[in-house]
Design goal:
The chain has 15 helices and nine strands. The protein is an alpha+beta fold.
Length: about 350
C-alpha cells in the first residue's frame, strides 16, 4: 500500500493533461490505447485528434473505407494496428451494436487487443482490478524490486504480471494503472531517470546497488535483416504514374507503392535493366530511365533495414491502370514513399 499511495500522490501532482484522461468512454480509451502501442504520446496525440474528428463514434469508424483509415493513419507506422482497429470497429458496431465488451476477458476477444490493452480498457472504463504491464511498468518494477528476469521472456512476462497484480490498488485500479505508466514515462525514464527526486529512492534496489542502467534486462533482439528496394516511379507525359497495393503478410499490407523490384544488394542501371521483373514491368514500352537518389534511403524498421532507391521511368506511352499524378497523395502509402513524394512531386500536386 505504501507504493500505491506514493505513486498516486506523485501522479495527481505530475500527470499530463491528455484528452482520453477526461473520459471513461470505451471507444475513446480503446482508440488511444491502440494508437499508443509502440508509439510515444507526443507522436500519437495529433493522430488521436484527427481520428476523433473524422470518426466521432465507433459506427463512423466502422463505416469508413479501409483506404481512408489507412490514409489517416499514414506516418504512425505498424499498420497492422490500423487494419485491426478497423476490423474491430466493424465487429463492435455491427455485431455488438456499438457496445464494447465490459470485461477483461471479453475485451481480449477483440482483434488487436492483447493483455495490456484489455487491462487498460477494463480498469479505466469499468474499474476491473486488472494490472497493466507495458514497457514503462516493466522498467519501474524491475528497478524498484531489482528483478533480473528478462522482460521479454515467458518467465519474465508471468513474473511481472503477477507482481503488478499484487501491487494494484484494487479500489482504484484506473488511477494506479495510469499512475505507474506515467511514472515510467516521465520520471523513471530509460535514460537519465530522476532518481534524486524519486518518491521510491529509499526503496529502489537498482539505485541502492547502482544497477539503474542494467535494469530491466531484455534478451537480445533478432538479427536485423538488410533488404534492397528498387521502386519504379513511372512518369507518363508528366501526367500519370502507377501505384500498386501491397498484399500478403509482409510489411505495409494494404498500403500503396510504386512497382517494386527487390534485389540482393545495391544495383546499378545496367543490372536493373537485365532483371526479369524489370523487363516484365516495362513490357514493350519505350522508356528513359534515371536514378532519383544515388545514395539509398535507409528506412529502419524493427527487424529490417530497407536500402531504397527510386528509379524514374519516363515514357510517352499510356499504360494500363495508370493514375493521374495529382491523385497519388490520395492513396495511403508507407512513410518511405510519402517522404519521397514530398521531394519528387511538383508543389501544385501537394
Amino acid at each position: 500500500m505504501v507504493l500505491s499511495k506514493r505513486l498516486t500522490y506523485w501522479y495527481l501532482h505530475n500527470k499530463r493533461d491528455l484528452p482520453w484522461r477526461k473520459t471513461h468512454e470505451p471507444y475513446h480509451i480503446w482508440l488511444s490505447e491502440i494508437m499508443l502501442q509502440q508509439t510515444r504520446i507526443e507522436q500519437g496525440l495529433p493522430y488521436y485528434y484527427k481520428f476523433i474528428e473524422a470518426y466521432p463514434s465507433v459506427f463512423d469508424l466502422a463505416k469508413a473505407p479501409a483506404d481512408d483509415v489507412l490514409k489517416l493513419w499514414q506516418g504512425l507506422g505498424y499498420y497492422s494496428r490500423a487494419r485491426n482497429l478497423h476490423e474491430t470497429a466493424k465487429f463492435v458496431a455491427f455485431e455488438l451494436n456499438g457496445v464494447f465488451p465490459d470485461s477483461f476477458k471479453g475485451l481480449l476477444k477483440l482483434k488487436g487487443v492483447g493483455d495490456y490493452t484489455a487491462s487498460a480498457i477494463a480498469s479505466i472504463c469499468y474499474d476491473e482490478p486488472v494490472a497493466v504491464v507495458d514497457g514503462n511498468v516493466y522498467r519501474v518494477l524491475a528497478r524498484i524490486f531489482g528483478i533480473d528476469t528478462p522482460i521479454n521472456s515467458t518467465a519474465g512476462i508471468k513474473e511481472f504480471k503477477k507482481l503488478a497484480q499484487e501491487l494494484l490498488d484494487k479500489k482504484d485500479p484506473a488511477t494506479f494503472n495510469q499512475a505507474i505508466m506515467e511514472f515510467g514515462a516521465l520520471h523513471c525514464k530509460p535514460q537519465n531517470p530522476k532518481c534524486g527526486t524519486c518518491p521510491f529512492n529509499d526503496k529502489c534496489l537498482a539505485l541502492k546497488n547502482d544497477r539503474i542502467k542494467e535494469l530491466p534486462v531484455k534478451l537480445k533482439k533478432t538479427k536485423v535483416k538488410k533488404r534492397f528496394f528498387n521502386y519504379l516511379v513511372f512518369n507518363i507525359d508528366d501526367e500519370k504514374t502507377i501505384l500498386e497495393q501491397r498484399t500478403g503478410k509482409g510489411i505495409w499490407n494494404g498500403l500503396y507503392q510504386f512497382p517494386l523490384i527487390e534485389s540482393n544488394a545495391l544495383i546499378d542501371e545496367a543490372d536493373l535493366m537485365k532483371m526479369e521483373d524489370f523487363q516484365a514491368s516495362i513490357s514493350n514500352l519505350k522508356i528513359e530511365l534515371s536514378l532519383f537518389n544515388e545514395d539509398p534511403v535507409i528506412h529502419k524498421l524493427s527487424h529490417q533495414h530497407l536500402f531504397t532507391r527510386f528509379w524514374v521511368v519516363n515514357s510517352n506511352e499510356d499504360i494500363e491502370n495508370s493514375i493521374q499524378l495529382q491523385r497519388v497523395q490520395d492513396y495511403p502509402v508507407p512513410v518511405l514513399i510519402e517522404n519521397f513524394l514530398n521531394d519528387y512531386l511538383p508543389d501544385a500536386y501537394k
